[in-house]
Amino acid sequence: MLEKVRKLAEKVNKYTPKSEEDLNRFRVEYLGRRGVLNGLFSSFKRVPNEQKKELGSSINNLKNLVQKKIESYKDFFEEEEIGGDVDLSKPVSLNNLGSRHPISLVRSEILDIFNRIGFTISEGPEIEDDWHNFSALNLPEEHPARDMQDTFFIQTNPDILLRTHTSSVQVRHMENTSPPIRTLSPGRVYRNEAVSARAHCIFHQVEGLYIDEKVSFADLKQALLYFAKEMFGEKTKIRLRPSYFPFTEPSAEVDIYLGTNSDSDYRITKGTGWLEILGCGMVDPNVLENCGIDPKKYSGYAFGMGIERIAMLKYGVKDLRLFFENDIRFLKQFSSL
Ligand code: DAH
Q1: Which residues constitute the domain of residue 49?
Q2: Domain total in the chain
C-alpha cells in the first residue's frame, strides 16, 4: 500500500491541469467523498498497527500535495479569467493623473505674458564658458562683481562653468542674430550657495532682452509695469530703484507693492510694503559691442528674474526647498492650475 501511495504522489506531481474544469475533475477525483484519499483513509484502518505511522504520514503528504496543486492552479485560472474579462470599452481611471510643477506653471505664464508683446524664446547651454557668462557681459577677469555670483567651475578648467545666470543666453543670441531682437530666455542656473529657505544651488531664471533703434528706459519701465499687472493683478504698483549690474547702464531693481496689511506681507517686505522681483537696465554699450552690435545705431534693455521668487510670491510658498523636493503633498496642490 505504501508503494501505491508513492505512485499516486508521483502522478499528482506530474499533473498539469489544462483548464478550470480539468482542475475541478482532479479535485473531485482526489478529495471528493468517494475520492482517492477517502479510499486510502478507509483502507488505512485495516492496516496492522506497526505500519500505521509510516503509511499515515505518507497519505497525509499526498493530501497536502493535492491541496497545494489545486491552490496554485486556482489562482492561475482566476487571474486568467480576470484578464480575459477586461472590458476594453471602459473609460480609464484618471485617479493617478499628474500635475504640472509650479515652477513650470509660472515659467509658462511669464513666457505667455511677454509673448503677447512680441517676445520670442531662446535657450542656451547650462555648461557655459567664461566669455558668455562673464567677459562678454562686461565682467572681465578680476572684476569684483564676479564674486557676487558664487560660481561652480567644471573640474579644474576655470574657463568652463555652470552658468550663474541666464544673461549668458542674451550674449549668444546677440552674437547670432541682428536687431531688432526681442527675446526671452528661461532656464536653470547654478550657484555655490548654502541651501536654505531662501537660497538654493540650483534655481531658474528668465532673461529678457530687447534691442532696436531708439529703445529707451521708458520702454523698459512700461514693459515691466505691463508684466507686473498681468502677473500679479491690475492694481499692482511697481517702483524702480537705482542699482548696479556690470552689463547694464543705468541699472535698476524693480519692486512690487504688496502693502503691510497682513503679517506675512509686513515680514517679507521688512515693513516697507515693497518687495524686489527683478533686476534690469539699459544694455551697456560695451556688451553690445562685444556681441557684434553697433552701439551707435542700437540701444536696448534687459532684465532678469528668478522664477522661484515669482512662484513663492504668487502662491505664498514660504520655503524655496519645497520646489525641489518633489513631495507629492506639495505638488498636488497645483493640480487644478
Ligand atoms: N543676471 C542678473 C542676476 O543673475 C539678473 C539681471 C539683472 C539680468 C539685470 C539682466 C539685467 O539682464 O539687466 O542677478
Answers
A1: 2-83
A2: 2
Burial class of 228 by CB neighbour count within 10 A (0 to 12, 13 to 18, 19+): buried
- Determine whether the shortest distance from the Cβ of 280 to ligand 1 is under 6 A: yes
CA distance 26 to 299: 91
Most informative mutation of 166, 202, 245 for ligand 1 (most atoms within 8 A of CB):
245
Structure-block grid coordinates of residue 196: 536654505
Q: Which residues of the chain register pLDDT less than 50?
A: none
The CATH number that applies at residue 271 is 3.30.930.10
* Rounded Cα gap, residues 180 and 210, in angstroms: 8
Q: Each residue of 26-76: pLDDT tens digit?
A: 999 999 999 999 999 888 888 888 888 888 899 999 999 999 988 888 777
Classify residue 92: in a domain, yes or no: no
- Whether ligand 1 lies within 6 angstroms of the CB of 287 is answered as no
Evaluate whether residue 130 is within a structural domain: yes
Strands laid side by side in the 153-154 sheet: 127-129, 157-162, 153-154
Answer whether 261's CB lies under 8 Å from 286's CB: no
Asked if 131 and 69 sit in the same domain, the reply is no
Give yes or no for residue 281 CB within 6 A of ligand 1.
yes
Is any ligand 1 atom within 6 A of the Cβ of residue 310? no
Residue 83's pLDDT is 58
Instruction: Give distance in angstroms: CA of 267 to centre of ligand 1.
Output: 25
pLDDT tens string 242-273: 999 999 999 999 999 988 988 888 888 889 99
- 83, 111, 133 — which closes off a domain? 83
User: Element (H or E) spanning 223, and its range?
Assistant: helix 217-232
Residue 222 lies in a domain: yes
Distance in Å, CA 299 to ligand 1 centroid: 17
How far is the centre of ligand 1, averaged over its atoms, from the C-alpha of 185 (Å)? 12
For ligand 1, atom 4: residue with the closest CA: 165
pLDDT given at position 231:
94
Whether residues 131 and 18 share a domain: the answer is: no
* Residues 58 and 182 grouped into a single domain: no
Nearest-atom number in ligand 1 for the CA of 148 is 14
